[in-house]
Amino acid sequence: FPVVSEPSTQETASPPPTLAITTPIEKERVPSPTTSIPEVQPKDLPTEPESPPTIQGSGEDQNIWEGNREEAELHFITYLINGIDTIFEKKTKAPFSGKMRVTDPSGNVLGEFEVLNGRMDGEEVYFDANGFVTERTIWSNGREIR
Which of 105, 106, 115 is closest to 65 using CA atoms? Predict the structure, then answer.
């Protein structure tokens, strides 16, 4: 066991330093710049399709979006953040989390993938016209791992 020594009784604590109240320093006026940076306005967002895709959920933590590519472009926007594609919902401006299922115009599923905080995370699967898997990729935090 380590030996613990007790403090000497001869040591005395010094009183805390006192703070002096001083008058505030006058701030120097800096002239405003003569040129201003123009404010950038975002492009007008496209209107929603006549029959918007449905967002379904089964359980509190599952969010499934299904629609075709055109509907996805109307509902979501993708930004490149730190070199990683990040998917945001246009209405809420929040990163999407859930499953995305992309269909053809007839409603056949072309592919589906998992998204977490806007980044692909989990399995991405593509299907042929007969519903057979043609490609499978595993993602983690927006990066392909397999």
Answer: 115
